Amino acid sequence: MTSTDLIMTVVSIKLILGVIFLSLATLGSIKFPDFFTRMAAISKASTLGLVLMSSAVGWYFALVQNDWLSFAKALFLVVFVFAASPVAAHLLGRGAYK
Which pTM value belongs to this model? Predict the structure, then answer.
């Protein structure tokens, strides 16, 4: 097993986990009874799923394709999602509460 095979295995696992978490976010938006529990499920699970998938894409481009600019873009996306998702969920919750 070469290093490229190992990297591709890790990237594939991260992509699959990201899809699972995004699917759980979708399921939570359908199954939970009220707005606040739906919002919590969607914001947490979709953030984790998107971070897993974009970090897998960044790893692939940086380590396999040797494209560090795409890695930087994926890293910027991860930082932006971590900063924006909790704020957006908080504002939605405050708006629904009032």
Answer: 0.86
